[in-house]
Amino acid sequence: MIKSKKPRRRRFWLTLILVLALFPFVGVALFAIVPPTPTILMLRQVVRGEGLDYQWRGLNDISPNLVNAVIASEDARFCSHNGFDMDAIQKALDHNADGGRMRGGSTISQQTAKNVFLWPSRDWVRKGLEAGYTVLIETFWGKRRIMEVYLNVVEWAPGVYGAQAASQHWFNKNARDLTPREAARLAAILPAPRRYQAADPGPYVRRRGARVQAAMGTVRGQGLSACVLR
């Protein structure tokens, strides 16, 4: 009697679907405890011959000035939203619809989800996965861990990732020793870290850095970084 192969195939596909469904949860759970492995973007830069300087530092070893600076520059509602800033998204959509220079509305949480788990592109598949991962890290990591991971995986120069590597690259010091001005300039170059310099900036970065540094006072005064800084 010949046994049907259909049940075996069905079990295979059910197992595969289950593994794929659980994969994001496993990654999020793992990186809630240990530093993330080099990301897809980092590995792509290595393949291109740019090298990789990725030095993990816990949040206690990163200056609070940098936390305040990136919140002031990138995501002022970081502590109050659930991963998505709907006002910022709507403003970006309205701006882009008017035909101006393309503007994003991604939060620090969304950027972290993309940088750690996904690939750099603007396709809708990646955006959908980014939304899913954002919900997961907001749920299982919390704001402090999200900020810690973000500051460690974001690119600050070609092949230079994270606050510690950036601080050494641009200012020859450790991340915990960054001054408000230095932190503001690091935040100022984040939109285009391959185009701008933090240590010897041109007029644009000087102006933007000054605005970020001024906004850092608002972040501190209004407790906008209270979910991160204890």
What are the secondary-structure elements, in order, as H or E?
Answer: HHEHHHHHEEHHH
Strand content: under 5%
Most strands sheet = 3 strands, mixed
Low-pLDDT runs of 5+ residues are: none
Mean pLDDT: 88
Please identify the structural class as seen in this structure.
Answer: mainly alpha
Note the total helix count. 10
| Radius of gyration using CA atoms only | 20 Å
Helix content: 55-70%
Oligomer: single chain
Distance between the termini: 70 Å
Tell me the overall shape: globular
Question: What order do the strands of the largest sheet run in, or round the barrel if closed?
Answer: 1-3-2
Number of strands: 3
Per-chain topology:
Blueprint: H1 6-31, H2 40-47, E1 53-54, H3 64-74, H4 86-97, H5 108-117, H6 124-140, H7 143-153, E2 155-157, E3 160-161, H8 163-171, H9 180-188, H10 203-221
Parallel strand pairs: 1-3
Antiparallel strand pairs: 2-3
What would the keywords be for this entry?
3-stranded mixed beta sheet, 230 residues, 57% helix, mainly alpha, 10 helices
Can you describe this structure?
With 230 residues, the chain is mostly helical. It is 57% helix and 3% strand. It contains 10 helices and 3 strands. It has helices spanning 6-31, 40-47, 64-74, 86-97, 108-117, 124-140, 143-153, 163-171, 180-188, 203-221; strands at residues 53-54, 155-157, 160-161. It has a 3-stranded mixed β-sheet with strand order 1-3-2, with helices on one face. A hairpin with a 2-residue loop joins strand 2 and strand 3. Helix 1 packs across helix 6 (124-140), helix 3 runs parallel beside helix 9 (180-188) and helix 5 packs across helix 6 (124-140). The longest helix has 26 residues, at 6-31. The protein is globular and about 70 Å long. The mean pLDDT is 88.
